[in-house]
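Lecture notes, unit on protein representations.

Consider one protein chain, 245 amino acids long.
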Amino acid sequence: MSRELLPYDVIASFYDEAWITDVLFPVKSGKEATVYCCRAHPSRGMRYVALKLYKDMQSRGFRNDAVYQEGRFRRETRVVRAMRTKTDKGRAFQFSSWLGHEYETLTRLYNAGANVPRPLAAGENGILMQYLGDAESPAPPLHGVFLMPDEAERLFASAMRNVELMLASDLVHGDLSAYNMLYWQGKLTIIDFPQAVDPRFNGNALMLLQRDIANLCRYFARCGVQADPARLAADLWRRFVNADL
């Protein structure tokens, strides 16, 4: 793929600021965004980067986005009212808010030492981040990987450490599963954070945390890992509430 197949004006800033030289191939396409493997500019010291390009609001499909938006905007402003009434201005702001929120979340978690892609740059329509994979193929999602029991135990422990680290950073992923964890060179990397919530201000956070952990336990149970998702979630939440993370 080249810039002719992906309109230049959509990602012009990434070319103009010498981040990328070519868009090579699509890695993953979902309801909210498409991820591409790009050739990095030689000055950046890396061969490839990942471009997450968000779809316009009319083409996107966040389910129950009010669940995730709760507490994100704590001041009532004209823009927030426009979002609520779904005016054109409100939709434009909502689009940019999801993108900006994901970039800020990635940055916070990367700086905290979480296993997330290194964020590189944010533009009007997308985010550049670390690419996991090689020239032939991207890192596969965990759900398609066969794990031996010993490796599954190790990776489950890694996944739970990241859930704890997120909670200690005042974040709950909100949509965590084996579909948005990448497996590369024996390690897990968590992706897809636009819906992440702040448990201090979002009343749905405990439910989302319980669902995230249940999803992890369900996948790893197939690999022989036995864990009690309700107990794990309750213990993490108690420690979060008591400022003991």
